[in-house]
Amino acid sequence: MTEDSAEDLRLRFGELVAHRRAELGLAQNALQQAGGPSGVTVRDIEAGRVVKPSRITLAKLDRALRWKAGSAIRSLSGGDPTPLPRETVGPGADAAAFVATGSGGDAGLTDDEVLALIRENRRLADELERRIKRDREGP
Questions:
Q1: Which residue in 42, 78, 94, 106 has a CA-CA distance of 20 to 30 Å to 32?
Q2: Which fold, 3-137?
């Protein structure tokens, strides 16, 4: 692959990331709150300045942009990402979008759905806290 074609792929990938982020209504920094890489990394990716993003960065992009796993790496190689259908996006992604945008309406959630997500997150946090305490205490 020539240097020009590699640069073209990076620029195309950056455009795909920027388009999807805008489609979701997320600012570059908000993408991190939705499980993505840092705002600086997103800015550099969108500008085509990241030559070889790590697998972790690509996985974070898949999650935050609500793409099917492996979409970011496929897109970086010239393929197209596969957006997740709304019904297969888990509550964690909706909660992240809510936090990132600052309102349930922007994330497509009703007030009742937001409250249900908050309750579920609290339940999960409580369970995690119990497990950590149990592990610290030992068998």
A1: 78
A2: 434 Repressor (Amino-terminal Domain) (1.10.260)
